[in-house]
Amino acid sequence: MCILYNFQVSFVVNTNMSMGATKDVVKYVMLVSCGSFNPPTFMHLRMFELAKNYLQANTNCYAFAGMMSPVNCLYKKKDLISGEHRLAMCRQATSSSDWIFVDPWECEQKQWSRTVLVLRHARELLKSVKETSETPATYTALLNICMRHKEKLMEGNNCQIMLLCGADFLESFSVPGLWASEDIEEIVKTFGLVVITRKNSDPFRFVHESDILYRYRKNIHLITEWIPNEISSTAIRRALKRNESVQYLIPEGHQPDWIDEFIDKNFNLRKSAFDEVMAVGRSCSLRSALIIESTGNSLSRRNMPQLKHKFNISEGNQAVYICEFKDSLSFNRFLDQVSQKFTSNVFPMKSRIIKCNRGVSEMDVHSFPKLACGFEKIDFNHLYSLLGNASTANQQIDILFQHTKIHKEGMRLRFFLTTLIEDAVRRCFPFAICRPFGSTVNGFAQKNCDLDVNIQLCTESIDKLSADQYYFCSRCKPKSERTYIQNTLSILADVLGNFMPSFTHVQKILHARVPIIKLYHQTLGISCDITLDNKSAYKTARVFWLFGKMNAHFKPLLFAVRYWAKQIGLTRPHPGPYITNFHIICLVTFFLQSRSPPLLPAIDKLLKNDFQMNEWIKDHVYPKTKTIELLVEFFNFYSKNVNCQICELNLRTATVKSKPSSSLLVIWNPFEEGHNVCKNINEEEFQRFLLAIKEAANITESMKYKKDIDDPNWGLLSLFLPSNYTFGISWKSNLNDHHERHSNLQVNELLSNFGENRATPSQVSLFTDICFIVFRLKNYDDLSFSLMERGSCKEHTNDIEDQKIKVSYPKGTYSPYCQSFTIEKEDHTLGVVLRFIISKYPEVRFCSYNVPHPMEDRILLHIETDKSVSAVDIFKRGLKQASFIFETLKTKVEEAVSKYKNKIV
After folding, report:
1. Rounded to the nearest 5°, which phi and psi values hold at 408?
2. One biological-process term from Gene Ontology (predicted)?
């Protein structure tokens, strides 16, 4: 709130005015400009200055304040970006002005407001300054303007609201059905108009031909701009879409960051919104570079073209930046400055990963750091502390969502990586486009998530006709589309893995239902799955993104359900016959579509309305519902209302019907007719899912919704606690607890890809890694444990290439039956195997394995037992069994390698 102190302003707001009637009384005028400001340009600001000069020179009026009022998002104008961003741009544009301010009132309304209502609001705003000493903080700028003119205003001079507009705005009065005649009369009679002429417009003639305008012509001031400035917001938007420079056309530094469009909850819904933001994101990423800067080589001291954005993504001694240039021309000028250090030892490939060094060796230039981006990490200890200290369960959901959702720079990294892949693909296919899909762009991405990329070799038919009819000769694709996809992905995998810098761990998974390439970018620390011509995935991402914009509860609810499924072991970090995150998204979506009243429309309705759902949102405004209430309703919905054993779910129609008797969980893919996305789930996992939903519904009935000091596991924490679920024990009770038989079973599963003990060339390299793990495991045999405070550790040192292996686990309030173990500098393969082994012990209620960051060699294992044995004893048993498994694996792989070598000989 802002205090006016002892300053009393005497405003007289005219009801019927006659401008210029009293020369000796100066009327103070506040100019109001309404428009989209999409974006604001220099011409918008220039109009205020023109009007101020004209009024002061030719009338008895003085423009002491100017107000910009961006139109509401529900105003149906093509390509209108969110009100939040337009407000930010206008504030930035007026930041250097001492008399123009931005009014958020129109943007904040729940519906589009007529211009006359905005003018009435401006009049009431001035009255409020007079009648009260307190003003909303958003109008501090207006208050400061009034303070500068308090002496004149206190003399009792009249204060008038006038509408400032261009000639095109004035001419819109004649558009049938656009304006009510009473609104036009009130504007020109009560308030008055200041009109700036534009090229090819004749406002004088228009006023003459309009009866209403001619009647009040004395209240209309027509100003001729003798210095033409035809900058148009439409032209600015067109230039931005085409990746053209808009420098010197709009005020500096107020363009919205494209990445914010993905997370802006107030984004204006329209069919092209998702495609536009994707296109701008791709365009910005294509003119970006990853620059690795060594000590003493500051980018600020180098002759670099002007940057639009520069983001520091590094931790440690080396400074690493994602630099986004203002336009393609600036980016190309920068690339011209980059030197080449190609020798016979390296592939001569240009990339947008660039080192800023002087006098370095060839190895230094072509070696890449492993980044550990802080914004990609989740501090689970801090998260659980915040959840425990929250006031309500609903606040816990918000905390979980805010602390686990992807950071905007994490999304920027993934778009940048997508364009690095496109660079490689375009060397073979010059018309190819790579687009991210999945969680990266549908709004549901978590920190440290994988990247899904779809490649389209040709986005549309290219048929450029020339007078001489020359054509490029090309090769026909195989008749089988699957063969074409498999062959193409195989070649692209070889290009990425063998020639492009920093791409490692390339795997070809070509026999899956959807063939993919899996790879890992060593520098950015991001795993990536690549598909080809997967059109349905892109359509699905667009629909879910729009759903996330339509309902504010969707994302927090989804994050809570997804985290619940992960904590109790329903979802797994590796593929298999399990519930996946995509299944969770579909389940939450169907729930919000089918509940009464629905919070999301059926996809068919979305497509039928051409994605124009603002009317649907307007018609489906209900009393505010808390996200925690929807979470409770979600579990009751699937445990009581919908029987997934006999029903199939259809997101296209938001309906259920009886499913085929041979199927388990059935959720139809909304963009692939006849494809059940849950086809991978087996009977055991399906029954676990049903039981988990039922038990979660029971837990929510007694769940405490407000903080309970006596219960550390209140609210969401009780829902996430694995020990509250009996299915975990019953699931394991059917397994044979004989350790040797477990080990043999696990060895067979681990060797399933070898096939009759005959290794392939790519599997031979596993032998060295396995031997290395076996050697390290022997050092754990006599390891003793002692409880240490969190942050300290019990160390055991090995002389394996001078590495230290540290074992630590928390103390504090944790019991000996619920412990976390961290193994430093250890292979992630061991973590997967330990979890695989320990989770099958009947004494273990829960065992989870996490990788704090893919670039760090660290294993984080959490074990909770049924209190019949300590977590430490379980951990020791697991280490011994892992040693046995890898010894056996070593022997069998050694045999396979030997057979392979003999075959070659």
Report:
1. -60, -30
2. DNA-templated transcription
Same domain, 761 and 717: no
How far apart CA 759 and CA 762 sit, in angstroms, is 8
Domain check: are 81 and 163 in the same one?
Answer: yes
b/e code 91-121 from CB counts within 10 Å (16+ = b): bbbbeeeebbbbbbbbbebeeebebbebbbb
**Per-residue pLDDT at 550 exceeds 60:** yes
Element (H, E) at 48: helix 42-58
State what percent of residues in the chain have pLDDT above 90.
Answer: 18
Cβ 371 vs Cβ 856: under 8 Å = no
Axis crossing angle, helix 535-550 with helix 554-567, rounded to the nearest 10: 110
What is the structure's pLDDT at 872?
81
DSSP-assigned beta bridge partners for residue 804: 797
Taking alpha carbons only, the member of 243, 356, 247 closest to residue 303 is 356
**CB-CB contact of 222 with 23 (8 Å):** no
Q: Which is nearest to 496 in space by CA: 448, 414, 427?
A: 427
Residue carrying the six token digits 């193409």: 488
Q: Is residue 381 part of a domain?
A: no
pLDDT tens profile 611-670 = 666 666 666 655 678 999 999 999 999 998 888 888 899 999 999 988 876 778 999 999
pLDDT digits (tens, 9 = 90+) for 153-195: 655 556 889 999 888 888 888 777 778 888 988 998 889 899 9
Does 810 share its domain with 841? yes
Q: Phi and psi at residue 758, in whole multiples of 5°?
A: -115, 110
The domain boundary residue, chosen from 241, 263, 294: 241
Interval 361-393: pLDDT, tens: 555 555 666 666 777 888 888 888 889 889 999
Same domain, 31 and 109: yes
- CATH value at residue 36: 3.40.50.620
Distance CA 103, CA 122 (A): 9
pLDDT at residue 699, rounded to an integer: 92
Domain stops at, among 711, 732, 753: 732
Whether 776 has a pLDDT exceeding 60, the answer reads no
Share of the chain above pLDDT 70, in %: 69
Whole domain around residue 187: which residue ranges?
2-241
- Beta partners for 527? 520
703 and 790 belong to one structural domain: no
Helices (H) and strands (E) in the chain, counts: 34, 25
Alpha helices of 252-392 — where are they, by DSSP H? Answer: 260-263, 273-286, 328-337, 362-365, 380-389
| Residue 668 and residue 773 in one domain | no
Domain count of the fold of the chain: 3
Instruction: Report pLDDT digits (tens) over 786-811.
Output: 334 334 333 333 333 333 445 454 44
Residue type, 402: Q
Q: Give me the CATH number covering residue 840.
A: 3.30.1360.10
Peptide bond into 597 cis (omega under 30): yes
Write down the pLDDT at residue 652. Answer: 92
Same domain, 39 and 170: yes
873 pLDDT band, cuts 50/70/90, is confident
At 824 the three-state DSSP class reads: strand
Q: CA angle, 885 as apex, 764 and 887 as ends, to 5°?
A: 60
We report the CATH number of the domain holding residue 568 as 1.10.1410.10
Contact by Cβ (8 Å): 4, 133: yes
Q: What is the pLDDT of residue 633?
A: 94
Contacts of 588 (CB under 8 A, 6+ apart): 554, 557, 558, 561, 634
* Cβ neighbours of 840 (radius 10 Å): 18
Q: Which residue has the higher pLDDT, 331 or 425?
A: 425
